[in-house]
Structure formats: structure tokens, C-alpha cells
Amino acid sequence: MHDVLREMALWIGSTSGKEEEKQCVTSGVKLSRIPDDINWSVLRRISLMSNRIEEISCCPKCPNLSTLFLQDNMLKVIPGEFFQFMRALVVLDLSRNFGLRELSEEICSLTSLQYLNLSRTGIHSLPVHLKGLRKLISLDLEYCFGLESIDGIGTSLPNLQVLKLFHSSVFIDARSIEELQLLEHLKILTGTVKDALMLESIQRVERLASCVQRLWIINMSAEVLTLNTVALGGLRELYIMYSEISEIKIEWKSKEKEDLLCDSSPCFKHLSHIVIVNLQGPKELTWLLFAPNLKHISVGRSRRLKEIINKKKGMSISNVHPDMTVPFRKLETLSLWRLSKLKRICSSCCSIPENFILCPPPALQSLRHFFVEDCPKLPKAATKSIRDTIKNNEDDE
């Protein structure tokens, strides 16, 4: 088991005997400061999450402390001396301290640290002496809107396996790609991209692209956006927002080895979650057929969109790839909103038997939730058909 996961499992599982005596949980009780009666010297795990702690004034000696949860508080500054005697600390969660603007250099003295969560904090930069955290395996910087760069991360954190940059202000660009390529042990990457050429570049480095599990495309302007099912084989969540893209094209040829075709089905096997908001350009999203395991789709404010699955394009795809004949087989949630030109979802949603060529009855067989708002051209028969499908799905359980 991964060391960090083992630490978390111990936290959850140690509920009796001596292990219980070595942990302190004071969460969600509206504390404004760290209690004075915590016996830091003997504790292995401490949780002070979901309180209202604004400042830290203590300098605890805690040679045995391995896990510290301080997330979801109101911290603005953490003095360097607070970390001075925490050499055994493995897990540190500071996420959701929105007012936390900077980290003291002393945090780099946590030489045993493997998991550091800084997501949803206001930090502008990472400490200069990151090399002190050479055992760090997981670094979460998602939703860090003030973060200016990740310069030096590639050489300073050689053992990093998980790096999360989704929805942060650090975009995937030429400079960050160079840094990321230095992380030889990287297994999970989340990130944000606004340049189609940069997305093309990262897909050409398949060792790196295969790590991408969560991708946010924003403010992109491109004639064609190419998504490669081989390079992005690990993709689980995809967000496309506030972009002008004329065409979204799916490829399944290796970017690194141009003559190599993917042996298996050319699809995004792990992609389960897609959100599309303010995407201007496409009139249909038939490329979603290449994500057969989708569970959640949300599409809104895309003024040119007329249909989700185009029958003609869908049949062309299913003729070449018969396993893609039935769309949305595993879809559980479908949200459609403010789509002024949307007329069709997929053929079977219109209750017209002859159109079952593309979407036979198994389509939407897993659907449990359907939300539609301000889609004036979508026939009532289509929405009724979907709601009837949901009812039938519930009755079959």
C-alpha cells in the first residue's frame, strides 16, 4: 500500500487501545485558537480541521507526530517555529485556509513529509528551499488562484508522484512542461491549459500525458482541439470552459510513435466526468461517443449547440467502432442548461423507433438524475422520454 494511504488508513482505523491514546480529534467545534491542553509530545495524529483558528502562537515539541490536519480554518500566517520540532511529520493538510498567503521557509525542515495539501489557499509562491522535502510524494495546489509559478519543483522534489494544479493560476505552458518532465516518478497530474499548442505538446510526451487525470481547458481559442486517447489514457475528468473551438477532434494514434496504432478500443476508458460551459463553436458533441464510461455530463451556455449526438456522425463512428453504438450506457447524471439552440440529445431520446439505429433502448440505462433549464427548442417529448427512462431504471432496481 502507498505510504500516504497507509498513514490515512491508520488514522481512520486506529479507534481503540493505545493507538486511540495517541491521537487528538478536535474538529468542527469553532475553536479560535489551538487548545493549550494538547499533549503534543506523545501524540501521533492531530486533527483541528473545520474550526475558526486564525493564528498559531505555540512552538510545540512533537517528535512522534506523523499526521496534522489544519484544513478549513482561518489561518493567515503560520510562524516558522511552529514546524521546528516536527521531524516525523508525514501528512500535513493546510487546505481551505483561504487567507494563507505564504509559507515560511521552515516548512522545508519537515524532512519526513510525504503528503502536503495546500489546495484552496492564497499562497503566491512555494518556499525557495523545497529540496528539504525530498521525500514528498504528493503535493496538492488545486484552486490556488494566486500561485505564480512552480519553478524548481522538478529538481527539488525528485520523488513526487502526485502533483495537482487543477484550477490554479499556474497553466501548463512550455516552461512548466520542462519542469514536469523532470519528475521521473510522476503518476498523477491535474492541470489547467489555455493554449491548444501547449495541449498538443504535452500529448506528445506520453509519459507525462498519461499521468493527467483531471484537465481544465479555459479561455482557449482554436480552430481544432485534438484529444488523443492514447496519450490521455488516464483522463478521468474533463472541463472545457469559456473557449472558442470550432472542432474537437479525437485521435487514437500514438503521438510519440507515429506509425503505432492503439491495439485496444480507441476510447477514453477512464473518463467519467465532463463539464462544458460557454464553449462557442461546435454544433454537436458527437465526440462524446469516445467516452463510453461517462457517468456525469453537464453542458451549458453554448449558444451554437444544436444536438449532443449527431445521428450521421454517430453512425459513421459506430460503423468503424461497433462497441460505440450505444451512447451514454453508464451515464448517471445529465445536466443541460441555457442552450438556446439545442434540439436533440441523441436519437433514442426522441421516442422515434426508426432512430433506434443509433441509440437502441440500452442508451441511458443507468441514468438517475436529469436536469434541464432554458433549452426552449428541446422537444418536450425528448425530456419526457428521458424522465420515463429514469423511472424505468428505478423500477428495475
Automatic annotation (TrEMBL):
SUPFAM superfamilies: L domain-like (SSF52058). It comes from the Eukaryota. Pfam families: LRR_8. InterPro entries: Leu-rich_rpt, LRR_dom_sf. This is Uncharacterized protein.
